[in-house]
Amino acid sequence: MESVVSKHNFEELLDKHHLKKTGPRLKVLSMMASKNTATSQPDLESVMSDIDRVTLYRILNAFEKKGIIHKVFDLNGTANYAMCHSNCEEHHHHDEHLHFNCTICKNVYCLDDLNLPPLKLPDGFKMEGFTLYANGTCPKCAGAIAK
């Protein structure tokens, strides 16, 4: 799961998307890039007590709008956010991959490496994107169950 951040530093990423390089933005990017799962705003709030809720909300919205992160929902309908690939752009995400919800640990994983077949829609339909979800047990939880 290689994200845009692994290829660029955070300041360059903000420059690319014409966003100011602020401490809170850099901290959110660092936290999100360090995780291998999607994360919710409440989870981010719990580890970033120095960033208030409104500021965090605005950062997440700006990052999603600019194509830096994408929104994916967990089994409870809570919005989670994950880093986008470098081919995402403002108002147009290209994160058409499987999102896996673990029913035990409740983590949401972006499974980017799966080769999904192209979708052929009936005449008259124009796709702007899609979201594909699966649920079950992640490898970590499956290993814990087996022990």
UniProtKB/TrEMBL annotation:
GO terms for molecular function: DNA-binding transcription factor activity; transcription cis-regulatory region binding; zinc ion binding. It comes from the Bacteria. Its cofactor is Mn(2+); Fe(2+); Zn(2+). The keyword Metal-binding applies. InterPro entries: FUR (IPR002481), WH-like_DNA-bd_sf (IPR036388), WH_DNA-bd_sf (IPR036390). Fe cation binds at residue 92. Zn(2+) binds at residues 102, 105, 138, 141. One of its GO terms (biological process) is regulation of secondary metabolite biosynthetic process. Binds 1 Mn(2+) or Fe(2+) ion per subunit. Binds 1 zinc ion per subunit. Keywords: Iron, Metal-binding, Zinc. This is Transcriptional repressor.
